[in-house]
Amino acid sequence: MEIEKTSTTCTVKHTQICKFLGCDGCEKCTLNDKNVKEFEKQKVNARWELTQEHLPVFVDDFHESETCFFCKKRPGNPKDGYALIELANPEPEYEKGMIFGLGNPQREIVGSMIPFPVAICKDCRKRFNLAENFKFYSAIVGFILGIIITLIFSKTRFMQYGQVPIITILFVMALSYGAGKQISKGLIKKYSSEQYFKLFEVPEMKEMEEEGWFVYREEAEKTRMIFTKKKPRENFCYFSYDFRQPEGTEEGEEMSENEMDTDIDMQ
Ligand SMILES: [Zn+2]
């Protein structure tokens, strides 16, 4: 899709960060803000180029694919939306604590953070939601049960003590929540023959893992994710294949140099 970049003053126009954050045009670009200085934009671009070095070339397949990645069968069911996950990488190295030479530079755990939309089908999303919501529903059921129990025993002397009814309700809620958590675990186990519940169990994620990517605040049984019908941006992609935009990347330059070498050799 052709998006014309209208800004006449932006110093990072047509750079890699322009293709990533400005993919829907200058009006919708988060860098297009009077509070963002031009030198800051260039810093962001330099950092983004370093982040890109740790992304496999096929990384856009995860959202462009027409089939689900969480299904265990290949190809998976047809895509019905996206699972949006926050991924982090220790690279590029980010140092802090170097104030006036005091203290050793400390390395931050997170050097890069990216939104990561993955194609997901209706069935996988339903099972994810079921496992997630069971804990929540069981707490509500526990609350209602707790009230019923206190009402049934409201005439007994035990229930007349000040905090006892509230404690009873909280206790039943906690029990019910605990049971819900176990059921949720059971559901994940039951469905794990059909789908992956953790992103990095998806076989196609192997290279991402080798590049150091991990789920930011990963949970024990399943990956924390948000389900959406749309990508973070309409034309969202990590690597732009829009040849109307000048490339200007190092790789591109290197390639033309190599080509020149071959030309010379041939002569
Ligand atoms: Zn699926």
Largest sheet: 4 strands, antiparallel
Question: Which class best fits the helix and strand makeup?
Answer: alpha+beta
DSSP helical segment count: 7
Q: Return Rg in Å.
A: 26 Å
Element order: H for helix, E for strand: HHHEEEEHHHEEH
Say how many strands there are. 6
Form type: elongated
Low-confidence region ranges: 243-267
Query: What is the strand content?
Result: 5-15%
Report the bound ligands by name, code or SMILES. zinc ion
Secondary structure: helix percent:
25-40%
User: Residue-averaged pLDDT, rounded?
Assistant: 84
The domain count comes to: 2
Keywords for this structure?
267 residues; two-stranded antiparallel ribbon; single chain; four-stranded antiparallel beta sheet; alpha+beta; binds zinc ion; elongated; 2 domains
Could you walk me through the main structural features you see in this protein, from its secondary elements to its overall organization?
With 267 residues, the chain is an alpha+beta fold. It has two domains: 9-55 and 240-256, no CATH class; 56-238, no CATH class. Helices cover 40% and strands 10% of the residues. It contains seven helices and six strands; from the N terminus they run αααββββαααββα. It has helices spanning 16-21, 38-52, 61-64, 122-152, 164-191, 206-210, 250-266; strands at 81-89, 95-96, 106-107, 112-120, 214-215, 226-228. The strands form two sheets. Strands 1, 4, 5 and 6 form a four-stranded antiparallel β-sheet that branches. Helix 4 runs antiparallel to helix 5 (164-191). The longest helix is centred in the middle third of the chain and has 31 residues, at 122-152. It is elongated and about 80 Å long. The relative contact order is 0.16. Residues 243-267 have low confidence and may be disordered. Residues 68, 70-71, 76-77, 120-121, 123-124, 195 line the site of zinc ion.
